[in-house]
Amino acid sequence: MNLQADARGPIIRPRVSGDMAECAEVLRAVHLRDSYPVNWPADAESWLAEVESAWVAEIDGRVVGHVAATISDDDARVVTVERLFVAPSVNGRGIGARLLDVATAHGDAELALLAVADNGHHAQRLYRERGWSLRSRTPITWGGSDASSLLWYELRRNVREDPASG
């Protein structure tokens, strides 16, 4: 899959049910290259669908990226970013950053959180470049030889920021 963005870049839009097969296909390519997710889900489409608020990046009518976000049931000022991935064929074009910004702005939360396995080097670099701070590290046993801990990152937002700018 060798897709080109136009001068405006990819289209970022809400995910719809018709995107699920393509999202799973892109996720498979990411898993084969980066071991994300560390453990391949039994049903990738269902795993992606577990989170209702989700967006995709699209180039030339094809899905090339995905992100989801969940507002905390305990504190509406906290959003958790999940299931962020970008097709390896379009890495380095800022698509992950754009998806991350959309998810972070979801619900006008003051604090955004996310977790990444310690083998997610591309993701960790993106988070640091976007101003996220490492909050904590939790040892895991389910990562096998691929990952030994889960890294929790946070980003504090000024909710008066306009997420559409930038």
Automatic annotation (TrEMBL):
Coiled coil: none
Record-linked PROSITE patterns: GNAT
Domain N-acetyltransferase per the UniProt entry, residue ranges: 10-158
Keywords attached to this entry: Acyltransferase, Transferase
InterPro entries found in the cross-reference section: Acyl_CoA_acyltransferase, Bact_Acetyltransf, GNAT_dom
Protein name (database record): GNAT family N-acetyltransferase
Organism: Microbacterium aurugineum
Lineage: Bacteria, Bacillati, Actinomycetota, Actinomycetes, Micrococcales
